[in-house]
Structure formats: structure tokens, C-alpha cells
């Protein structure tokens, strides 16, 4: 079964041309929606992917109707592949995962996406290391000041209950128990 997906960004735009092109391409069903491509959680797209069965093909008129970023595209294509379905773009016949050439192109795109993710991880790690060297602290700010922590430890050593100490600082007893 061929399933078409059509999308426009605003209410002022029309889906007619996309729907006609998808039907002319042999789509048995067309799912259309009006939502920005920046939104990654699109109901219509989720519905289109959910209806796919092994051997089905999801078709779009243009690639930007499906995704606005390489990462979003790869995630969507993975969801389609996981269903055992194929993918076609009408205005770019090379992007047809039902053919060996299309699968090769998809693998190249996937490799580029993976390379991009590794570069981002590397830069993030380097930035974190530099920040730590400069004394930047990561994570949540402590709920208690250094003085309050010292006082809470003293009160705990004196035998006061965790619950009592926690209530006096308006924190959970777990926060106080971690100070020991």
C-alpha cells in the first residue's frame, strides 16, 4: 500500500497540489496536516507512520515536507524502516528506499548524520572539560548553603531526626541524609 503524507506550515497555504500529486503517484491513502516543519511531534506524520505495514511505501512530494533537519529526517526514516516500509520523494527520484540506489543514498545520509553527532559530542565534551578547568560547577545548585549544611551535620550528630532537620530548612529528609 502506498501512503502519502502532505504538509503545509500555515492555514493560509493549501494542501491541494500536494494531495493531487500524491494521488497521481498512486497513493492509496493521503494523510495531510497544517503544522510547521519545525515541530517534530506531528500528529499526521505519526499517524502515517503508524499505519505503515511491511512492504508499504510512505511518499512525500518534497523532502522538506517530511523533515527540516538531517537529524529529524534520519529519525523519521528509521521509524519507517523499523516498520519494514519504504520511502519515496516524488521530486527527487534518487530518494527511494525501495531501490538499491536509494538505500545506498540513505546509508550515506545516515553516516553523515552519525558523523555530525560524534562531532557534536566531541565539542560538547571539550567544552565541559574547559569549563571544569575554569571552576564551573555543573548540576543543580545546592539547596542548602555551606553554613546550613554544616549546621545540619552538627544537629544530626547531636541525634536530631532527619525529618526535624529537613522541616527546619524546608527540604526533604533525603537532602539531609546525603549530607552525612
Compact description:
The chain has 180 residues and is an alpha/beta fold. It has helices at 16-24, 43-51, 70-82, 100-133, 146-157, 162-169, 173-177, and strands spanning 2-8, 29-34, 57-60, 86-89.
CATH class of the largest domain: Alpha Beta
**Shape field:** elongated
**Helix content range:** 40-55%
End-to-end C-alpha gap: 63 Å
Oligomer: single chain
What does this molecule look like?
This protein has 180 residues and is an alpha/beta fold. It has two domains: 111 residues, 3-Layer(aba) Sandwich (Rossmann fold), CATH 3.40.50; 32 residues, no CATH class. 50% of the residues lie in helices and 12% in strands. The protein has seven helices and four strands. A four-stranded parallel β-sheet has the order 2-1-3-4, with helices on both faces. Helix 1 links the parallel strand 1 and strand 2. The chain is elongated, with a radius of gyration of 27 Å. It starts with a strand and ends with a helix.
Question: How do the helices and strands line up, and which of them pair or pack?
Answer:
Layout: E1 2-8, H1 16-24, E2 29-34, H2 43-51, E3 57-60, H3 70-82, E4 86-89, H4 100-133, H5 146-157, H6 162-169, H7 173-177
Parallel strand pairs: 1-2, 1-3, 3-4
Task: Give the tags.
single chain; 180 residues; alpha/beta; Rossmann fold; 2 domains; 4-stranded parallel β-sheet; 7 helices; 50% helix; elongated
